[in-house]
Amino acid sequence: MPTADQIKSLIHSHFTEDQERFYTIALQMAAHEARQGHSSLAMDIRRIVDEERKKSGPKLLSFPKELQGLVLTEEPMTGIQSLVIPTEIQNRLKRVVHEYRQQEKLKSHGLSHRRKLLLMGPPGTGKTMTARVLAHELGLSLHTIQVDRLVTKFMGETAAKLRQIFDLIRQEHGVYLFDEFDAIGGDRSTDNDVGEMRRVLNAFLQFIDQDTSDSLIVAATNTPRLLDPALFRRFDDVITYDHPSSGERKTLIRNLLTRFMAKNFAWNQVLAVSEGLSHAEIDHACRDAVKNAILSDKTKISASDLLVTLRERKSTTTAQKG
Ligand SMILES: Nc1ncnc2c1ncn2[C@@H]1O[C@H](COP(=O)(O)OP(=O)(O)OP(=O)(O)O)[C@@H](O)[C@H]1O
Ligand SMILES: [Mg+2]
User: What does the DSSP 8-state code read for residue 52?
Assistant: First the structure.
């Protein structure tokens, strides 16, 4: 049974039309029930609240004024099947989804679901996409924090904004992505600036450490060099992404060319030329090939058509690296 205070607050919030408060109390009741071991009732309450919230749309988000422009919110539609990654990573992501769905069961045994993830790896290998997929699979909104805008010259100001973001994480259930979160230090050269950077990072990691909300926190980076290895243990999962293997390139290309793919597709050269390209670059080359086919009224794309756009991508990448 909910406590007397909860019932009174619930009734009060109904008559004062304070919808946010109503939701909060309902969730507190769910947590209370979960602690009593009534996990299926707790799940039902949560589900009702989540569904009603979704119906009323993102306008319910009560972002403080200071955070406007710092957090972008979207409702992603990307399913887990479109993510081409090794089975091992796929299983780890499925475990995050599974534990999230079973969180009340875990809580009733004093355990918490895994919800702090660090994704590392080269550009264009699916880190941001993973955050979208997780949000979609869990039916949650994705809130991306614009890390570069968050950090200002003044440590105090940055820490204050970080605190507001973590308040939001506690209040607004969702997936929160701190994208490229260590890139903020990328072009700072003096020792002083690096020291400042480390302080910001440490503050961030401390907030992560203290966070006990139900939201999912995803931090993504392609330059983990600034991170102290001891900090990795603050995350429930550290997942490393890489360029696609030959088998993954095949799947990716098949997924992207779909009905345009020629019947006798000569894979050998395509797989050789696409080696070392990221998923994003292959994605780009495939879309270019599809565009070329449409514009020249062709219904099929052969391996040699794709080789043209793959080589184009490859030369762009080499030029950037060189
Ligand atoms: N593993 C993947 N499977 C399928 N498509 C992918 C994958 N990785 C990347 N893509 C495609 O490339 C696009 C860009 O990828 P994404 O933004 O996830 O890269 P990232 O790892 O976050 O890169 P960065 O480090 O530059 O932020 C995706 O929107 C998707 O179209
Ligand atoms: Mg990204």
Answer: H
Q: State whether 234 and 125 are in the same domain.
A: yes
Q: Find out whether the beta carbon of 280 lies less than 6 Å from any atom of ligand 1.
A: yes
H/E element holding 191? helix 191-210
Contacts of 197 (CB under 8 A, 6+ apart): 184, 185, 188, 226
* Domain assignment of residue 298, given as a range: 246-321
Atom of ligand 1 nearest to the CA of 221: 25
Q: How far is the CA of 274 from the centre of ligand 1 (A)?
A: 16
How remote is the CA of residue 60 from the centroid of ligand 2, in Å?
27
On whether both 225 and 269 belong to a single domain, the answer is no
For the Cβ of 224 lying below 6 angstroms from any atom of ligand 1, the answer is no
Check whether residue 208 and residue 289 sit in a common domain: no
267-300 pLDDT per residue, tens: 999 999 999 999 999 999 999 999 999 999 999 9
Considering the entire predicted model, what is its pTM? 0.79
The dihedral over CA atoms of 82, 83, 89, 92, expressed in degrees to the nearest 10, equals -60
Q: Which of 116-125, 159-168, 266-275 has the lowest mean pLDDT?
A: 159-168
3-state secondary structure of 244: coil
- Cβ contact 86:248 at 8 Å: yes
- CA nearest 207: which of 140, 240, 141, 158? 158
Tell me if 46 is assigned to some domain: yes
Say yes or no: 178 and 89 in one domain.
yes
